[in-house]
Amino acid sequence: MIPVILKQNMPVTAIFSLLLALNIDQTMTAADPTSAAPKSGSPPSSPVTPGPPERGSYNVTNANDSVCLLAQMGLQLNISYFSNSSGKVVQELLNLDPNQVKSSGSCDPDQATLSLAEDHFNLTFTFSLNSTSNKYHLSGLELFAALPDMSKSFEAVNTTLKFMLGTLGHSYMCQKEKALSVTQEFTLNTFQLQVQPFGVNGDFGAAEECELDEDDMLIPIIVGAALAVLVLIVIMAYLVGRNRSRAGYQTI
């Protein structure tokens, strides 16, 4: 009798022992913090890219209290600097808020300046006029910045630029976004820009558009011309085919 009883109860005992061992192992694993799977932390948030900046209107008056420089534009600073918080060089896009900007400047016969100042920025445009050709251009840009996260104040100066070419008495316009490379650490992005630094007579003169705006107008012209040529080819082919069919019916 005893051998038979042991033979019948051994599978049940084995199953019970196995379940007990699994339960103990799971309990010890849950209690041991070193064996728990590490929690994956959330990835670092990437810098938020601002949208297009708000367009601001600025002007400069001369000694006679007459407007001598007009400008309407949205401005965005693209700067690289050493960040105290991250301990490395970072690149940041910053929009200028026209509601917070104070403008100033000066006008001379062959040079005009426009300075835009915020709490942490001071941006100065310098325009030069060639009195012989009556052409002007943006010849200089200076940026001074002091952000709280900067290890030291930021300064970028370039006085050999040749942007925004225009004619005396006319305004320069570029509605598209355009990046003006000033230094390796600073690029100025302009949006919906129209400026006239010389020959202002109350309001903007006739606009001379930048190449980006001209390209937008050129594409529809090219497409229209191509369609016109295609239609002309079809008409000519039809006329040639018609003449050949008539010639085929002539008697010899």
From TrEMBL:
Membrane-spanning residues: 217-240
The subcellular location is: Cell membrane; Endosome membrane; Lysosome membrane
What range does the record give for the signal peptide? 1-31
This protein's membrane topology, according to the annotation, is: Single-pass type I membrane protein
Give any single GO term for biological process. establishment of protein localization to organelle
Instruction: Output the Gene3D superfamilies linked to this UniProt entry.
Output: 2.40.160.110
User: Which part of the chain is the Lysosome-associated membrane glycoprotein 2-like luminal domain?
Assistant: 53-200
Query: Sorted alphabetically, which InterPro entries does this protein's record hold?
Result: Lamp2-like_luminal, Lamp2-like_TM, Lysosome-assoc_membr_glycop
Task: Tell me the domain of life.
Answer: Eukaryota
> A GO CC term?
late endosome membrane
| Region called Disordered, residue ranges | 31-59
Q: Which Pfam families match?
A: Lamp2-like_luminal, Lamp2_2nd
Q: Which UniProt keywords apply?
A: Cell membrane, Disulfide bond, Endosome, Glycoprotein, Lysosome, Membrane, Signal, Transmembrane, Transmembrane helix
Lysosome-associated membrane glycoprotein 2-like transmembrane domain location: 219-250
Q: Which PANTHER family match?
A: LYSOSOME-ASSOCIATED MEMBRANE GLYCOPROTEIN, LYSOSOME-ASSOCIATED MEMBRANE GLYCOPROTEIN 1
Hey, which family's this protein in?
Belongs to the LAMP family.
Could you identify this protein by its name? Lysosomal-associated membrane protein 1
Q: Which organism is it from?
A: Danionella cerebrum
